[in-house]
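Moderator note: this is an archived Q&A kept for reference. The question asked for a predicted structure of one protein chain; the sequence and the answer are reproduced below.
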Amino acid sequence: MSTNERSNSLKKRRLERERKFRRDAIIKIAEKFFISKGYAQTMVDKIADEAGYSKATIYNYFESKDDLFIAVASNAFQKLHQTFERTLTQPDVSYELRSLGDAYLIFIEEYPDYAAFFDPSRLSLAIRNMIKKEETNQSLTESEKEFRYHQLKIEELMKNIILETLTKAGISDKLDPFSVIMALSTLDSAIRELLLREKSREYVDVLFNIIDKGLKNYDD
């Protein structure tokens, strides 16, 4: 490699580090707004003001407010995936559905702001749009690519755990793991609502026991 090529390579890496630093800083500030004010009340110009950039600069990194929301959601999903993996790989933890529920509770307890941030309807819409893009060979944004990576990792982990649970119960031929994932996802808001109440962990434990026993004794 010539001196000029080496210099260009170093410059390229430096610019990429600077770009990542600015993008991460914008996401961090946007996260604070989305969590504290909600999606509707979060304004891109306010994020730009706090970040010390122009609104135009924000749009150099993100296509839209929705794209910025997806970037924040991607961070939340990354933390959720990390929590699942860390918890479920403990030697004293059974690799089954109930343990997955306990891991989700740990995530909510460790990252309450992220748990409150999840908006099932908006996330579902965003995911549908991403899937449509993929089906029609449209390019995903950087935020969407990151989100899909973490989302699919979580789905794969959940599918493996559910399949393991069904296999142990001898009913792996009766249920599609993805159908179970979709059914469980509808309970997300209810679980978070229960956690806001007194003795919430006790209520959620009851719910998880019902789900776990019901799945293990499923009869179509």
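Archived answer notes: The chain has two domains: 1-61, 64-216.
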